[in-house]
Amino acid sequence: MNKLDAQRQKEIQQAEELLFAGPQALGFAKGLFQGHFVSDWVMPYPRIPDAQNAELDGTLSELRQFLNEHLDAAEIDRNADIPRSVIDGLGRVGVLGMTAPKEYGGSGFSQMANCKILEEIGRRCASTSVFVNAHHSIGIRALLLFGTHEQKQRWLPKLCTGEQLGAFALTEKEAGSDAANVQMQARPSEDGSHFILNGEKRYITNAAIADVLTVMARTPVPGSDKTSITAFLVTPDMPGFEIIEARMPKMGIRGTATGRFALRDVKVPKENVLGPPGKGLKVALTVLDFGRTTFGACCTGAAKTCLRLAIEHANTRKQFDKTLGNFHLVQKKIARIAADAYAMEAMTTITAAFIDRGLEDYMLETAMLKVFTTERLWECINDVFQIYGGSAYFVDLPLERMMRDARINQIGEGANEVLTSFIALVGMRGPGMEFKEIYDTMVKPTREQGFAKAWTAGKARFGATVRVPEVPVRSAELRSFASQLGRLIWRFNLAVNRALITYREPILDMQLLQERIANAAMDLFASTCVLSRYDAELQSAQRNGSSSSPDQLAADLFLRQSFRRIRRFLAGLTDNEDKSVLATAKSVLSNPGD
Ligand SMILES: Cc1cc2nc3c(=O)[nH]c(=O)nc-3n(C[C@H](O)[C@H](O)[C@H](O)COP(=O)(O)OP(=O)(O)OC[C@H]3O[C@@H](n4cnc5c(N)ncnc54)[C@H](O)[C@@H]3O)c2cc1C
Hints:
Elements: H1 3-19, H2 28-33, H3 50-70, H4 73-79, H5 84-93, H6 111-124, H7 126-139, H8 141-146, H9 149-161, E1 166-169, E2 185-188, E3 194-205, E4 212-220, E5 227-234, E6 241-245, E7 258-269, E8 273-274, H10 280-316, E9 318-319, E10 322-323, H11 328-356, H12 363-388, H13 399-406, H14 416-443, H15 448-466, H16 479-503, H17 511-544, H18 550-572, H19 578-590
Parallel strand pairs: 1-4
Antiparallel strand pairs: 2-3, 3-7, 4-5, 5-8, 6-7, 9-10
The site of flavin-adenine dinucleotide (FAD) has 21 residues, from strand 1, strand 3 and helix 14.
């Protein structure tokens, strides 16, 4: 086996361990890749239960009042600091422990409710929403998910009020996108009472203001010369903890404190190990699922601000004797922002509901939500920027700040390229394994048991290929959209099968093809979420006797545009200039001087 193959085998083994721990119910996104529409997870559109909704309304109105009176996003950006009074206020409203159980001092809200809170903050100030995410979505998440009762009792109460702050420290110089490559070492002491941590972390939000950090470090695997990653709770008062840089000066989300720190022979008690030893990467990736869900909520909030700003300007600014809103090229932008904001909210709500309803594996959906919403928000900001013309460029308007702030979204918590490839490969694994069964049996037909397995796999594959999945909607007006969606899922499944049969293992490296498959899958998921929400709204409008709203027009537009994109992505699988793209890149990369 050459070095590259060995590395590939290691990566595959790592991914298998991480992602496919045991038998799991078929999730929605994995279902798409197999030609199924797993309707139970997405329809009817989820609602926050009435009792919690009333509580959420109270918290939201308290939060809005606090933010109106005390949050100045421009000042936070200018001073590159979120005032302590803002953090304390968020703590008082309950935002910093929103989803923590009440017994540990949290507010006990669901992820769906939490997303409404983050959307509200995301509408106003990206620095503040990223700060809250770093503390609550990821900083204390491992403690919430994997902590023992004693650990939660000890740490959570102060973290939920904001008296103490949390951070999540995974990234290092050599472990950016390649998160599994953590180099920070954690050596067990001889008496087994503690671990000794050494190494450096960089780009860590809240590093210098946190009182408790979830730190990923490499521990030896007992009885072997291998190492694996373990999660630790580290506090800055531990001797050997050193902040190298408290606030790295940066382009956007300037209010957040992004720092670098070193641990030099830091003794961390064994009681501070979070989750199973050696399973830190699984801990980290699960934590990031939550971060990506609230990312969706923050982007939704920011997209709604884009829409509001676009409408305000298009209705007031006159050129050629008309307000800008009269020009079709401006209308096109505003309509698209409205459609995307509608979809972002629907997708966030449904993904958060997966978590609340206890779906075991939602990695694909959270990755899709993160990529989709961050890419759409970037487009939304670019469009509203254009509508404002020259005025957008000046610092008295929020647009240049919003643009600077939004740029990190496509990079943080998994660069979008990495997640795009991940979506395609994890999604294709299911049908890929079925094909492998069929292929292996054809090569070794004597294996009786193997033949039975292959026959079952073949039947499943064949079944999905001939059947157009049913997409159940309650509103008669949406039947045509539902049947178009069903047909697109069927076509998508055919395209995935064809790609797997045509390219086989080399598909693992074909990122241009993976991107089209992932993009189509993301739009299928987004369309599903929009259809589900649209259906629920139409049903409710019918019950109340109300007529169509701008929201429903936006939903209609989204579905039309999304279906067109899906067709384009699928057509691109066979009609493209990939060879030329790759040849040009290769040539340019090997001739840097030209
Ligand atoms: C403001 C800010 C706050 C952050 N906060 C935190 C935090 O709180 N905690 C934490 O642990 N980390 C944090 N990070 C780190 C962040 O998660 C990483 O920056 C991110 O994971 C990317 O890693 P990298 O910067 O090393 O980029 P690299 O890994 O060097 O990647 C650079 C680019 O290469 C491309 N690329 C990389 N791999 C692939 C691939 N396999 N296929 C195709 N393209 C690829 C992508 O376009 C990517 O953007 C933060 C970063 C920033 C900038």
